[in-house]
């Protein structure tokens, strides 16, 4: 709220041209001009983000568990995964166009590429950080690997998993937008691109505002899920 | 009966081998309460882990009821220094953890769990999470978790040392009551002479590095014993003094072996020993 007020005040006080920095009324006006169009494109971006995020979360969790289970597999594949992650994703976008073509799929792939790594790394950190006394307890009860994993290591890892998921929510949106800006056929990214071409800065700001709202909502949804699933995490960390 | 025969343990560390225990021989009778006492780093926890089957001995072995111990057994329960409770499980669910791991029916052991919680005064907390309990209560929960296995042997690794003095005494008295009631064999590692004298039938005194059995001290004081008011104060004082002596003057000079220096470069075998 305060941020919006300062923004408004600044644009009014310095009499900034809406072409460079539109004030809040201009942005609201842009919403009013094209509400159907903006909502439709928001929906497209949201779907890409959610599907990609879902795939990355599922994949990241499974791969992390496999890597944590076997040191050999970890040594064999982690360098490869880290290497792939180091490639700038923006540079991959044109390749995705060549490989997958147009539509939502390349954007979803981009979302997965960006989200996967933080989810996987934080899950691995969680699964391998079981305190030694809990490990020894499981050992003294002759628990099988699978029992130890399900009853001790995985629940213990959940708070860390959620750290990764929360980081990944914003990356998911960034991934969708990278895909859409490079291939501006649909989504809020394409709105930003086309409004730039038609010098409609308020419309671009309207799209960016929608993205910010989407990002915050996703983040807090994941945070709420965390509070539901791991209510004990705060007590343990403090 | 537990027989510890010629037990030695050496660990390979990065800086060379560390001899933790040397030639321990012990017999522990059924229902006996044996305290193992020694300075920190004397290998008392290692001895306990060897009896539990959590470690493999380098030399010698442990027989439990005539069987060689090679891995953890269901009729042997461990209580650790820290309660090691699962923070996402309620007190009752924590107590029932061994039952789940052993793939037994939860419903058949629920009453037993509640009886154990009642015995340790935790009935009202059965559905609380561990972090809502004090340290002493958490350790009581871990005691209940050990008892739900109906163990023949309980191995306790300094179970009260992380607690404040008052809670420690309270729990020691409680453990004595439980031991008298259930007649479980207990091996109790501690560095507190007071606890050892209160609880044990015999006290095994270990010398420091490498841990050797220095002496077995009998504690012939009738139970129930208590801290403070005691008809046998003189005996308590005598035994405590003896244990003090044994712990303070740790090594007989002629047996004293210098600690192995961590070799910087590889030394040829046999050079250090």
From TrEMBL, chain B:
Residues 2-233 form the ABC transporter domain. Residues 250-262 have a biased composition (Basic and acidic residues). Residues 250-273 are annotated as: Disordered. It holds the Pfam family ABC_tran. This is ABC transporter ATP-binding protein. The keyword Nucleus does not apply. Residues 263-273 have a biased composition (Basic residues). Keywords: ATP-binding, Nucleotide-binding, Transport. Gene3D superfamilies: P-loop containing nucleotide triphosphate hydrolases (3.40.50.300). One of its GO terms (molecular function) is ATP binding. It comes from the Bacteria. Signal peptide: none annotated.
């Amino acid at each position: 709220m305060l941020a919006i007020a300062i923004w408004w005040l600044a644009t009014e006080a310095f009499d900034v041209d809406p072409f460079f920095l539109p004030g809040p009324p201009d942005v609201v006006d842009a919403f009013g001009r094209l509400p159907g169009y903006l909502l439709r494109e928001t929906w497209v971006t949201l779907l890409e983000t959610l599907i990609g995020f879902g795939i990355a979360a599922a994949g990241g969790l499974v791969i992390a568990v496999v890597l944590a289970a076997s040191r050999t597999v970890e040594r064999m594949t982690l360098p490869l995964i880290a290497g792939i992650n180091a490639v700038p994703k923006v540079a991959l976008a044109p390749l995705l166009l060549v490989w997958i073509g147009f539509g939502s799929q390349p954007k979803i792939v981009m979302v997965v590429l960006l989200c996967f790594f933080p989810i996987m790394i934080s899950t691995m950190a969680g699964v391998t950080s079981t305190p030694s006394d809990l490990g020894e307890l499981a050992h003294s009860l002759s628990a099988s690997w699978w029992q130890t994993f399900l009853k001790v290591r995985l629940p213990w890892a959940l708070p860390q998993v959620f750290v990764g998921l929360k980081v990944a929510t914003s990356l998911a949106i960034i991934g969708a937008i990278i895909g859409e800006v490079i291939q501006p056929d649909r989504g809020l990214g394409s709105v930003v691109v086309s409004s730039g071409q038609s010098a409609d800065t308020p419309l671009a700001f309207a799209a960016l505002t929608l993205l910010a709202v989407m990002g915050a909502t996703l983040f807090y949804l994941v945070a709420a899920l965390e509070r539901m699933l791991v209510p004990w995490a705060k007590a343990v960390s403090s | 009966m537990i027989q510890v025969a010629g037990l030695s343990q050496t660990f390979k560390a990065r800086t060379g081998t560390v001899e933790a225990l040397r030639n321990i021989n012990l017999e522990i009778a059924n229902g006996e309460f044996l305290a193992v006492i020694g300075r920190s780093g004397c290998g008392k926890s290692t001895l306990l882990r060897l009896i539990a089957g959590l470690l493999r001995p380098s030399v010698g072995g442990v027989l439990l009821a005539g069987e060689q111990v090679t891995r953890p057994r269901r009729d042997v329960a461990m209580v650790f220094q820290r309660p090691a409770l699962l923070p996402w499980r309620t007190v009752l669910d924590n107590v029932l953890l061994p039952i789940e791991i052993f793939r037994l029916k939860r419903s058949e052991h629920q009453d037993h769990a509640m009886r154990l919680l009642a015995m340790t005064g935790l009935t009202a907390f059965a559905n609380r999470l561990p972090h809502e309990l004090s340290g002493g209560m958490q350790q009581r929960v871990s005691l209940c978790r050990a008892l739900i296995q109906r163990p023949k042997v309980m191995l306790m690794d300094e179970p009260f040392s992380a607690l404040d003095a008052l809670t420690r005494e309270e729990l020691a008295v409680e453990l004595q009551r439980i031991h008298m009631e259930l007649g479980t064999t207990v091996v109790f590692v501690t560095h507190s002479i007071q606890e050892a004298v209160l609880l044990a039938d015999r006290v095994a005194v270990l010398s420091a590095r490498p841990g050797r059995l220095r002496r077995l001290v009998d504690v012939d004081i009738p139970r129930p014993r208590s801290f403070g008011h005691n008809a046998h104060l003189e005996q308590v004082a005598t035994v405590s003094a003896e244990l003090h002596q044994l712990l303070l003057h740790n090594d007989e000079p002629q047996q004293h072996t210098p600690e192995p220096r961590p070799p910087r470069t590889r030394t040829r075998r046999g050079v250090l020993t």
